[in-house]
Amino acid sequence: MAPWIEGLAAALANAPAFSGCKLRAALHDDEDFLFALHRSAMREYVEATWGWDERWQRTHFAAVYVPARQAVIVRVEPVPADIGRISLTQHWRKIFLRDIEIVAEERNRGLGTAMIQALLAFAHAEGRAVELLVLACNPAQRLYARLGFRVTANDGARLTMRA
């Protein structure tokens, strides 16, 4: 398992919202599930911003899918199931949160908050900032602001946020 996944899992160990879950490294075989998750989580916001072109989205996802940048969130109990993903790119001064997506049935239960708080703790321990892009119409920006992210750029469609 990648060191960043182990570090994030350690930071999540005592998070009540993560109870019954684990992180695992993504595999090439996870691509279809992760694209379906991406479509479910993001289609509404992409549609409102640029329009959703299924073929383009699938081709783009396949082109940028790098398993080493992905961790799959697994609900272990009561029945094992993949329920989300977190995708990071690490730079020497920052960690770029590429994506955090959770299946609809698991949203609004504190899991996303716990994941981001763990990421912030992990980054802080390494002396790095966390940066992300969020579509301007995506209400997740309120979660990010509540967790200490501030807007550093706005291109009209996307906000760059940094903590």
Helix content: 25-40%
Order of helices and strands: HEHHEEEHEHEE
- What structural category arises from helix and sheet content? alpha+beta
State the major sheet: 7 strands, mixed
Counted by DSSP, the helix tally is 5
| β-strand amount | 25-35%
Global shape: globular
The counted number of beta strands is: 7
Give the N-terminus to C-terminus distance in angstroms: 26 Å
**Mean of pLDDT:** 95
Strand order of the largest sheet: 1-2-3-4-5-7-6
User: Uncertain runs with pLDDT below 50, 5 residues or more?
Assistant: none
Query: What is Rg?
Result: 15 Å
Task: Give the secondary structure arrangement, pairings included.
Elements: H1 3-12, E1 21-25, H2 31-49, H3 54-64, E2 70-75, E3 81-90, E4 94-102, H4 111-125, E5 129-135, H5 140-146, E6 150-154, E7 158-162
Parallel strand pairs: 4-5
Antiparallel strand pairs: 1-2, 2-3, 3-4, 5-7, 6-7
Helix pairs in contact: 1-4
Characterise the protein shown here.
The chain has 163 residues and is of the alpha+beta class. Helix content is 38%, strand content 29%. It is built from five helices and seven strands; from the N terminus they run αβααβββαβαββ. The protein has helices at residues 3-12, 31-49, 54-64, 111-125, 140-146, and strands at residues 21-25, 70-75, 81-90, 94-102, 129-135, 150-154, 158-162. It has a seven-stranded mixed sheet with strand order 1-2-3-4-5-7-6, with helices on both faces. α1 crosses α4. It is globular and about 40 Å long. The two termini are 26 Å apart. 27% of the residues are buried.
